[in-house]
Specification:
Distance between the termini: 21 Å
Shape: elongated
Number of helices: 9
Number of strands: 8
Strand order of the largest sheet: 1-3-4
Helix content: 40-55%
């Protein structure tokens, strides 16, 4: 009862909590109270886009043409996939290519010839078990808006993470809080 009374009195008298008041007295001014950051509590696997098109390392040109014009192309447009991970035969991530890279592949490959899809090799990735905060920091540091998501043990591609997915996670947490589901 004493702790509840003390909390009630300090909440009414002080504009900040005891923790932020102590920091302010030391010269560190905190603009807002402490809270749980949803980007720190959510994992990449919770918001990544799955069911993406992952290209094999070697492919016939007509197969790639089918990806650009067929059902896969409609699926990619609907799913917002603009980066195409390239995988080795065992599924391990090798790199990624863009839509333009696939179009160049078709222009340079004779029909029926099996050729290697040449991915960009130094593509920044993120692990599926990473926090959204670390993914956002990686995106900001590398100026990347789309990251292939890799399974930690096998290095297999399991999805892609876009900036829009990070924002959707933040919006979802605000909607959850607005609905009264989070104390605050």
């Amino acid at each position: 009862i004493g702790a509840m009374a003390a909390h009630a009195v300090t909440s009414l008298i002080q504009k900040r909590s005891i923790l932020t008041e102590r920091l302010a007295r030391r010269g560190y001014h905190v603009s807002r109270e402490y809270g749980v950051d949803p980007l720190e509590t959510m994992r990449v696997a919770e918001v990544m886009r799955t069911g993406i098109v992952v290209l094999p390392q070697e492919a016939p040109s007509e197969t790639v043409q089918g990806w650009l014009t067929g059902a896969d192309a409609a699926f990619c447009k609907k799913n917002g996939q603009r980066l195409f991970p390239v995988a080795a035969p065992d599924g391990a991530f090798l790199g990624a290519t863009s839509l333009g890279g696939l179009e160049r592949f078709i222009q340079n490959a004779p029909v029926g010839e099996v050729r290697r899809v040449l991915p960009f090799r130094n593509v920044t990735t993120v692990y599926s078990d990473a926090t959204l905060r670390s993914a956002a920091e990686t995106m900001a540091r590398k100026h990347a808006y789309i990251l292939p998501v890799i399974e930690p043990g096998s290095r297999k591609v399991v999805g892609i993470l876009r900036v829009e997915d990070l924002l959707a996670a933040r919006v979802r947490s605000h909607q959850f809080a607005a609905a009264g589901c989070v104390a605050g």
